[in-house]
Automatic annotation (TrEMBL):
Family annotation (SMART domains): S_TKc
Enzyme Commission number, as recorded: 2.7.11.1
Group of enzyme by EC: transferase
UniProt cross-references to InterPro entries, sorted A to Z: Kinase-like_dom_sf, Prot_kinase_dom, Protein_kinase_ATP_BS
GO-annotated molecular function: protein serine/threonine kinase activity
Keywords: ATP-binding, Kinase, Membrane, Nucleotide-binding, Transferase, Transmembrane, Transmembrane helix
Amino acids binding ATP: 51
UniProt key word Isomerase: no
Identification of the protein by name: Serine/threonine-protein kinase
One Pfam family linked to the record: Pkinase
Transmembrane segments: 281-301
Domain named Protein kinase: residues: 24-292
Length: 303
């Protein structure tokens, strides 16, 4: 059975905005979830991520939050490119267009580059969360799938469906990242809510024994701090940041700004990951220089 978005967003299809008049050409589907679908599109030579929502009210709320963040003088400035409606089977579907970030999940990045990169990635992600919090919002649905890591640990958030004004009930969540799931706090949009999810995200990224797979099947009364502490002990990288993780999980940080400063102090002096450049040509040049030097000496003595 073909879904509505497979038909509307097939590669090569053109999306025409009803009100702003901008048109986009579909390249491929990036992801589909309960609150919408995300498509890679292009306009001219520029590429963007387009998200279309199933529920108009919820999607408009997401656009409003993203617009407010996009107007701040932060790394999110001008993140929102366009917001409009498109017609699908005679029905108006709301969509918005945002910057497209080419990268990989944190799990893939760490598997490829090494666990020491968690220090750099953690710093960058905390800085992003602090920017959102200072704008009056909480990200809400922070998880591995909702962030992208690129270059040398640069971080971007890519799904804003859970963004919620501070003080309100969290409108979208993923259970294992939710402090309510762990019986460790309420589902209220507070900075501490995002920091709890941040700690779970890091632990899940460093969980080489895949303990989180079994946690979903546990009885609610068995989900507690002991389970998370055990995972911390199993990973050298997690053990290094355990003091931060414990404070974040227990809600002991007043703000994300405070958490960021604590994190920076904790990792200072740690051996941070550095990009490694493989340059086999140096060895070749070195070997060649030795050969030329030897040949020169040999010819000198012959003469």
């Amino acid at each position: 059975m073909t879904t509505w978005y497979e038909e509307a967003f097939r590669p090569g299809a053109e999306i025409q905005g009803k009100w702003n008049g901008h048109s986009y050409v579909v390249e491929r589907l990036l992801g589909a979830g309960s609150n919408g679908v995300v498509i890679l599109v292009r306009r001219g030579t520029a590429r963007f991520a387009l998200k279309a929502g199933h529920e108009t009210v919820d999607h408009q709320s997401e656009i409003n939050s993203l617009l407010a963040i996009s107007l701040t003088n932060t790394s999110f400035k001008n993140f929102l490119i366009d917001a409009d409606d498109m017609n699908v089977r005679g029905k108006d579907i709301s969509f918005y267009v945002m910057r497209y970030i080419d990268g990989m999940t944190i799990s893939h990045f760490i598997h490829k580059r090494g666990q020491d990169w968690i220090y750099v990635i953690g710093s960058n992600l905390l800085r992003k969360l602090t920017e959102i919090h200072k704008s009056g919002y909480v990200f809400g649905d922070l998880k591995i799938e909702n962030m992208i890591v690129s270059n040398y640990g640069d971080v971007d958030l890519i799904d804003f469906g859970g963004v919620t004004p501070k003080g309100r009930a969290i409108k979208q969540l993923t259970e294992v990242y939710d402090r309510g799931f762990w019986n460790m706090g309420e589902r209220v949009a507070e900075e501490s809510y995002d920091l709890f999810s941040f700690a779970i995200l890091l632990l899940k990224s460093l969980d080489q024994r895949h303990r989180f797979t079994a946690i979903n099947k546990m009885l609610p009364q068995n989900r507690d701090m002991n389970q998370l502490t055990a995972i911390m002990r199993e990973s050298p990288a997690a053990a290094q940041i355990a003091p931060f993780l414990q404070k974040a999980l227990k809600g002991e940080f007043g703000t994300s700004q405070e958490a960021y400063h604590y994190w920076r102090k904790l990792i200072s002096g740690k051996k941070l990951a550095q990009p490694t450049l493989k340059m086999p040509w140096l060895k070749i040049c070195f070997a060649a220089s030795i050969f030329i030097f030897g040949a020169t000496v040999y010819m000198y003595w012959l003469n």
